[in-house]
# Entry
Amino acid sequence: MIPAAQPAADHSVLLAAYDVSLGYHGVTVVRGVSLQVRPGEAVGVAGESGSGKSTLARALAGDLAPMHGSVLVNGRVWPKVRRSDPERRSVQMIFQDPYSALNPRMTARQALSETLHVVRGLSRRDAADEAGGMLTRVGLSGAAIDARPGRLSGGQRQRVVIARAIACEPDVLIADEPTSSLDVSIQAQILDLLIDLRTERGLALVLVTHDLAVLGHMTDTCLVMQAGRVVEEGPTEQILAHPQHSYTRALVGAHLGVSAAGSGPPPAQNEHGEA
# Structure
């Protein structure tokens, strides 16, 4: 990694990227991106598929080292943070596909209990008890708590993944298209859950999305990415109301076109498709 010049330490910043470029097998897909996330703040990263936003999310979560620049958590460079360090727990990621993020052989309670036992040092018995309470809090109940991922709906699996992230007691949640694999009728439930957990725990959020309605509903500030670069950034409300870059205007225009073509939101349903 080539470190980039960094400003003086700002202890109000939980997570920061400075002039970060990222790629795979020598091919650069993110170029010169910088952002800062402060306590309780919700930052959106928007763009079409292939814009580099999910790659940026991986770097912010510490799963991908920059080719150039630095990602810092609580002032420490990610590659210098060990698995046992508190900084590793302080940033947690929620993935697009909850099924691939779960062990298919472990029940929801077992998956969460393992996290509570390993990360927080709870006894096996205490971890199992707390896991049940946490799963209930995120909307899982009854037989679903002791079911394996294959027996759960997409929305239920995403609730398990969210509970596991929260179990680490993070300061920042990174949500990479957290509702993209879910039915429209379930998406709002998961987003409302994230809003409630943010409020309860004072969490900061980095939300990666192509959905401008979600961006406007969930975030305070945002970056708009095109072909790996940030083309516009600022307060979300301002960007959506008065986009300056042609790409952002096209995204907003496409979103307004889709909204106008729709006939209104679908009727509320539960995760089994019942109205």
User: Anything to note?
Assistant: Residues 1-5, 260-275 have pLDDT under 50 and may be disordered.
